[in-house]
Design goal:
heterodimer, A: 133 residues, Arc Repressor Mutant, subunit A, two-stranded antiparallel sheet, elongated, B: 8-stranded mixed β-sheet, 7 helices, 27% helix
């Protein structure tokens, strides 16, 4: 696994065993999944491969085994299709790492914008109208 | 141009209400007398209350429908000025109740009959005055936000109006001073999404869950949406007519309709 801060994306070796963080709610649908990261209060929409990859992130399954398992799940037999699947699995893992969804990966710093409350002279918050769209 | 701004102190917040005419100003001041704060100085208005023809407007011009707005967002709109003034009391009551942040507040519109509610994410006025909804006994509830109580049978709880209002002085029928509870039937969004050929794009259950899941950060909200989505009770539509149909279908027949 390469986690060089200078790299834009984290890469994984075939024998790496990625583990997903625990505080996550997952909803699996046909062909897609939605993942709610409780600590970060973030919602992630995953396609079929990303959803399958996430389910394999148990800390025991190697990346190579993930690809084998997903190739079996999606009935991938053609070499070109398998190459595409490998790329998609690695992209998914890199995304999970970037989003702080994998254990042992730091959560990304997030810039959140919270508007300053408008205060009256006595310090009471004033409810304001939203800006025009 | 407004006729005057009424400042009310609601719990820990101040709210400026701009009124359209002197008559509206006087009536709203009477209703809200117990909550008015005339000593807070000039504050920007957050709400616009229109009950009458603007002062000086040409009598042959179009008559504005009474309405309550928060910026561009329509909170209430009705041909009855009484209903809109009552909605103001409800909205302010919701603002006060909303200050209890231990509850799961969701800022979605509420369409409900007497017992069942649907949460709606729609542009302002999408559902206002919809005849099909009215015929089905469904109306929009005016509120600042609602509490969602997750569970095996989730409920929507609508805050009561402010208490201590001068209903008689404002010539209004007082509304119920308690929270109103409804069974939650589903969540519907109006989303104008079309592909390159102008055809509507369908939304998958996962896309809808991801979309509405971003409306609140509580895991309970996500879990509730997941349950609703599993039962086909989260929808995204692209027209006003489809919104009405979906809401009517989700709320289902009233008990009297089934007998």
């Amino acid at each position: 696994m390469s986690d060089d801060p200078g790299d834009a994306a984290v890469t994984f070796a075939p024998d790496d065993r990625p583990a997903g963080i625990e505080d996550v709610e997952l909803a699996v649908f046909e062909g897609e999944a939605v993942l709610f990261d409780v600590q970060a209060s973030m919602v992630h929409l995953l396609n079929a491969v990303a959803g399958g990859t996430w389910l394999c992130c148990d800390g025991e399954t190697t990346v190579a085994a993930m690809i084998d398992e997903l190739a079996d799940t999606f009935s991938v037999t053609e070499p070109s299709d398998r190459t595409a699947l490998e790329t998609a699995v690695h992209d998914s893992l890199a995304r999970f790492a970037d989003e702080g969804l994998l254990a042992d990966h730091p959560r990304p710093a997030r810039l959140t914008f919270t508007p300053e409350p408008v205060l009256a002279d006595d310090g009471t918050e004033i409810v304001v109208a939203p800006p025009d769209p | 141009m407004g006729a005057g701004i009424i400042n009310v102190r609601v719990g820990t917040q101040l709210v400026g209400i701009r009124t359209d005419t002197a008559h509206t100003f006087g009536r709203a001041r009477t209703l809200l007398a117990a909550w008015i704060d005339d000593d807070c100085g000039d504050i920007p208005h957050a709400l616009d209350l229109v009950l009458d023809r603007p002062d000086g407007a040409h009598r042959r011009g179009p008559r504005p429908v009474p309405q309550l707005r928060h910026g561009q967002s329509m909170l209430a709109r009705s041909r009855s000025a009484d209903e809109v003034l009552t909605a103001l009391a409800d909205v302010l009551g919701g603002l006060l109740a909303r200050q209890d942040d231990t509850l799961l507040w969701v800022a979605l519109r509420v369409l409900a009959d007497d017992r069942v509610a649907v949460l709606v994410e729609a542009p302002p006025m999408t559902s206002s005055g919809d005849r099909r909804l009215v015929r089905a006994g469904i109306r929009e509830l005016s509120t600042w936000a609602v509490v969602v109580e997750p569970g095996s049978s989730a409920t929507v709880q609508v805050p009561p109006p402010l208490d201590g209002l001068d209903w008689a002085g404002a010539r209004l029928e007082p509304t119920r001073p308690e929270w109103r509870n409804y069974d939650l039937a589903g969540v519907v969004g109006v989303h104008d999404a079309h592909d390159a050929h102008g055809a509507s794009e369908a939304h998958s259950a996962a896309e809808m869950l991801a979309h509405f899941g971003r409306r609140h950060t509580a895991p309970e909200w996500f879990a509730l949406l997941r349950t609703l989505a599993d039962h086909g009770r989260v929808s995204m539509v692209d027209t006003r007519r489809a919104l009405s149909s979906t809401v009517i279908e989700l709320i289902g027949p009233t008990p009297s309709d089934t007998t």
